[in-house]
């Protein structure tokens, strides 16, 4: 697909949205009071997710116009182009097929793209990951001294880290006490040093996860881990200090996930223990590929397949549901409304689930690496603002930190609230606090009461008259007044199961895609990270003491490097 993208800002729907915006007055109190059917009409389901859009700053007309816009930028055709493997990643001339990683087994006709039987290859690799996971879990896979694996260390960064660590934290209740996974990503040596400090090398397995197997951080950490393994095994008398013994140790304690299997072998990892995927899976879309090997080990292949099935449920919804009820489409379009018409710069994601504490970080890569672009897929400049800053923390922690700004600040911060009806750890407060909390209170209910209360407070606020009616001194009334009309989307599911987690991730993947389509950008490349990587390698000699390299730096960088060289202990 090399034709130019439709310029959304020139479409009739965009013009209508501009007009609509000029006469738009957010009035969530009034809208809810006048329209008892609002919550029902603006709530939708996808899979197990209930998605309530009714507390957004949008009317029926807003939604109608946004859906018209989606048609005028050819969203349905672009969705189909993605699912069928057209090269919609134009700047890298690649198909975008993360959805193929989770197609239902046995789907007919099978998906063949660019001559590759995608379904067959995906199934084969998934089986290989599953078999390996079972070997580790059963103890059949053993380290060089014959001991079973007790700790898996995933070494990767970006998409080769954020997805696995997010899912690992979210699904911990599905794990086993005798099998832990740790994640090393940062080239700051502290990361590897701390994560390995208390490990037994004989029971440790490293998974080097890197799509390219060329990422500086990951390869550096992998080399450090290899040296750590050799040194510790030798110190424990488990291996000799010779080439063959070291080679055997690497083969027993290292596996890899990559699209570059030749480089894996050059590192010393047995190619039989390398799990592959393909260039049509972007790093930030890869947690459902072999990049999730650490998850299959931690939770078992069945749980991993349930996760994939959850993704697929939302894929099917996205592909087949009319835009008027299509949840990812509507959420993506609302984000366009906020970004391009209501002037929002950021978007908060606030899971009321401690298990999702890495979800906002995961979404930051997904959304911002995808849509942080200033040119469209044909290289022409964008014609409007693009990707928002995504951020967030689990509730209720955020309530005691940054919610103040969302409630009473001058900026509009659309926020997604996510909660689950059933807790992973049902706990009861047997004693209570003698005031607000009764003896025997279900703590999850207290938690959820906060979730419900926050979106209410944000939507409906508190008027000055209501504040006065509480007997507040007049000089404090304005400080204690809440304007309301702060937009939120509420997402609820029965429980945080593997399938539900897959559904949530797929939801945000497709929201991101929808926004990219409206803006005409390639949401699947990431050229913006290249310059910093190149410059780091250029500056490195100056840092290490090369005065000629130092002299070539700009004055600020030179001074900073000099400070480092002077103060390095
Ligand atoms: O630096 C950006 C990036 O390319 C991400 O897109 C990717 O997820 C990450 O680096 C890691 O890349 P790799 O898996 O090839 O090591």
From TrEMBL:
<dbReference type="GO" id="GO:0006094">
    <property type="term" value="P:gluconeogenesis"/>
</dbReference>
<feature type="active site" description="Proton donor">
    <location>
        <position position="369"/>
    </location>
</feature>
<comment type="function">
    <text>Catalyzes the reversible isomerization of glucose-6-phosphate to fructose-6-phosphate.</text>
</comment>
<dbReference type="GO" id="GO:0004347">
    <property type="term" value="F:glucose-6-phosphate isomerase activity"/>
</dbReference>
<dbReference type="GO" id="GO:0097367">
    <property type="term" value="F:carbohydrate derivative binding"/>
</dbReference>
<keyword id="KW-0413">Isomerase</keyword>
<keyword id="KW-0312">Gluconeogenesis</keyword>
<dbReference type="GO" id="GO:0051156">
    <property type="term" value="P:glucose 6-phosphate metabolic process"/>
</dbReference>
<dbReference type="InterPro" id="IPR035482">
    <property type="entry name" value="SIS_PGI_2"/>
</dbReference>
<dbReference type="InterPro" id="IPR001672">
    <property type="entry name" value="G6P_Isomerase"/>
</dbReference>
<dbReference type="Pfam" id="PF00342">
    <property type="entry name" value="PGI"/>
</dbReference>
<dbReference type="GO" id="GO:0048029">
    <property type="term" value="F:monosaccharide binding"/>
</dbReference>
<keyword id="KW-0963">Cytoplasm</keyword>
<dbReference type="InterPro" id="IPR046348">
    <property type="entry name" value="SIS_dom_sf"/>
</dbReference>
<dbReference type="InterPro" id="IPR035476">
    <property type="entry name" value="SIS_PGI_1"/>
</dbReference>
<comment type="pathway">
    <text>Carbohydrate biosynthesis; gluconeogenesis.</text>
</comment>
<comment type="pathway">
    <text>Carbohydrate degradation; glycolysis; D-glyceraldehyde 3-phosphate and glycerone phosphate from D-glucose: step 2/4.</text>
</comment>
<keyword id="KW-0324">Glycolysis</keyword>
<comment type="similarity">
    <text>Belongs to the GPI family.</text>
</comment>
<feature type="active site">
    <location>
        <position position="400"/>
    </location>
</feature>
<dbReference type="GO" id="GO:0005829">
    <property type="term" value="C:cytosol"/>
</dbReference>
<feature type="active site">
    <location>
        <position position="533"/>
    </location>
</feature>
<dbReference type="GO" id="GO:0006096">
    <property type="term" value="P:glycolytic process"/>
</dbReference>
<protein>
    <recommendedName>
        <fullName>Glucose-6-phosphate isomerase</fullName>
        <ecNumber>5.3.1.9</ecNumber>
    </recommendedName>
</protein>
<dbReference type="InterPro" id="IPR023096">
    <property type="entry name" value="G6P_Isomerase_C"/>
</dbReference>
<dbReference type="InterPro" id="IPR018189">
    <property type="entry name" value="Phosphoglucose_isomerase_CS"/>
</dbReference>
């Amino acid at each position: 697909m090399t034709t130019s993208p439709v310029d959304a800002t020139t479409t009739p729907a965009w013009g209508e949205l501009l007009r609509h915006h000029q006469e738009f007055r957010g009035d969530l109190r009034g809208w809810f009071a006048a329209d008892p059917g609002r919550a029902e009409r603006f709530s939708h389901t996808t899979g197990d997710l209930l998605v309530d859009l009714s507390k957004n700053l949008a009317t029926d007309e807003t939604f109608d116009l946004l859906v018209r816009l989606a048609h005028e930028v050819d969203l349905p055709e672009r969705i189909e182009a993605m699912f069928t493997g057209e090269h919609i990643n134009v700047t890298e001339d690649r198909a975008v097929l993360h959805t193929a990683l989770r197609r239902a087994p046995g789907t007919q006709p099978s998906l063949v793209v660019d001559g590759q039987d995608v379904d067959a290859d995906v199934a084969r690799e998934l089986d290989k990951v599953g078999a390996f996971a079972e070997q580790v879990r059963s103890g059949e896979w053993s380290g060089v001294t014959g001991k079973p694996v007790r700790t898996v260390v995933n070494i990767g960064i970006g998409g080769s880290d954020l997805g696995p660590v997010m899912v690992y934290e979210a699904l911990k209740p599905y794990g086993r006490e005798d099998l832990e996974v740790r994640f090393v990503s940062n080239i700051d040596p502290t990361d590897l040093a701390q994560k390995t400090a208390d490990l037994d090398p004989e029971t440790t397995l490293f998974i080097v996860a890197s799509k390219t197997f060329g990422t500086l951080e990951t390869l550096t950490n992998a080399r450090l881990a290899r040296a750590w393994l050799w040194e510790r095994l030798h110190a424990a008398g488990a291996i000799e200090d010779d080439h063959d013994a070291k080679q055997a140790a690497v083969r027993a304690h290292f596996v890899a996930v990559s699209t570059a299997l030749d480089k894996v072998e050059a590192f010393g990892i047995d190619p039989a223990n390398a799990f592959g995927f393909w260039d049509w899976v972007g790093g930030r879309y890869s947690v459902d590929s072999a990049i999730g090997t650490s998850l299959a080990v931690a939770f078992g292949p069945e749980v991993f397949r349930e996760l994939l099935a959850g993704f697929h449920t939302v894929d099917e919804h996205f592909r087949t549901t009319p835009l008027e009820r299509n949840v990812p489409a509507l959420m993506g379009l609302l984000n366009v409304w906020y970004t391009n018409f209501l002037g929002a710069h950021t978007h908060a994601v606030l899971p009321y689930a401690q298990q999702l504490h890495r979800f906002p970080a995961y979404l930051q890569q997904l959304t911002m690496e995808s849509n942080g672009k200033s040119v469209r897929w044909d290289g022409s400049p964008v014609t409007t603002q693009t990707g928002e800053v995504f951020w967030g923390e689990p509730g209720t922690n955020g309530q005691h930190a940054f919610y103040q700004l969302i409630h009473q600040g001058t900026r509009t911060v659309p926020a997604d609230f996510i909660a689950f009806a059933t807790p992973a750890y049902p706990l009861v407060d047997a004693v209570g606090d003698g005031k607000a909390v009764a003896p025997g209170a279900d703590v999850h209910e207290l938690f959820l009461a906060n979730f419900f209360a926050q979106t209410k407070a944000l939507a409906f606020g508190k008027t000055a008259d209501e504040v006065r009616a509480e007997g507040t001194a007049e000089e404090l009334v304005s400080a204690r007044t809440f304007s309301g009309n702060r937009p939120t989307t509420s997402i609820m599911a029965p429980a945080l199961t593997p399938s539900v987690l897959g559904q949530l991730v797929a939801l945000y993947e497709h929201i991101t895609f929808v926004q990219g389509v409206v803006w005409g950008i390639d949401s699947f490349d990431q050229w913006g990270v290249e310059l910093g990587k190149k410059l780091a390698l250029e500056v490195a000699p100056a840092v290490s003491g090369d005065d000629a390299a130092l002299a070539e730096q700009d004055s600020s960088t030179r001074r900073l490097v000099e400070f480092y060289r002077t103060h390095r202990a």
